[in-house]
Amino acid sequence: MSATQAPVTILVVDDDPGLTRLIERALRREGYQTAAVGSGLEATEWLKQHRADLLLLDLKLPDMEGPALIESMAAMRRPVPFIIITGQGDERVAVDMMKRGALDYLVKDVNFIEFVPTVARRALSQLDKEQRLAAAEADRQRLEQEILHISELEQQRIGRDLHDDLGQQLAGLSIMATMLSRSLASRGAPEVPEAAKITDLLKKTVALTRSLARGLHPVAEEPDGLVSALHDLAARTTSLFQIDCRFECTGAVQMNDYSAATHLYRIAQEAVSNGVKHGRAREVRIGLNFNGVQLTLTVKDDGGGIGAVDPTRQGMGLRIMHYRAGMIGGRLSIEKQESGGTCVTCTLPAT
User: In this structure, what CATH number is given to the domain that contains residue 266?
Assistant: First the structure.
């Protein structure tokens, strides 16, 4: 324990004063801070005023059973990690309590006091490892969020550059090429066919640049930006893959949360791409519905369908879809339809 770290506090809950004193003495020799009470009610009142890092709990108290005290702490939203103290012959009850969350158990036998510090130290070490793992997981999730956010910002920047810079320059060149082609045609110049090809190629390049810009920065920062973006996704999918892709919207869907709208769009985009490229779908339906309680995005296709999704083996695209849904407080499901094809559903509570 470092000099700056607060001492670990262990609360002993047992109705045997003599035994309690021995337990406290053994724990204090190990550097732990202790407190002791003799009943479940006293433990509840103590925990309302103080903080404990660990609880040593006798299963049989004068006013309540150990499980009842654990339930009481949970109801108070003051759960404390605990070790069960039990008499000889009650090991089965202690094992049952471990299934309810106990870290370990101690049996009141001749070696009981000797084992108390060891078991407490082991339980606290386990808690420390779990807390470190939880902190590492929180850091990982925060880093993933930052990476995804930075990626979105970079895509938006590239999309704006394509639209505002390169797109404008190409549009200017297209106009100049058109004027040149007309000038050559008016003079009957032999270069007219080549000029016409250049003009046509530039027009196609301008259209492609604009399409790329929309794909990188698809959702406008306005309340109906998501609806417009999904309309555009359906139209571009139909044109690009020569399939029947339609967008259907029910209810007034207005989203002021631009980040959530973008995540929903990316989920729909990935679902459509999976249906077309992997499922070989010929028909895709993108749906958006708001019933006043929750927003529901659905993407259904008539492709080959998807098998049972194993979260540990799914591809990057599916993992990112689940992650995006989680970031905005949504829930994602991916199911194979009885009629064939796949249905992707993302539900988001109204805010």
Answer: 3.30.565.10
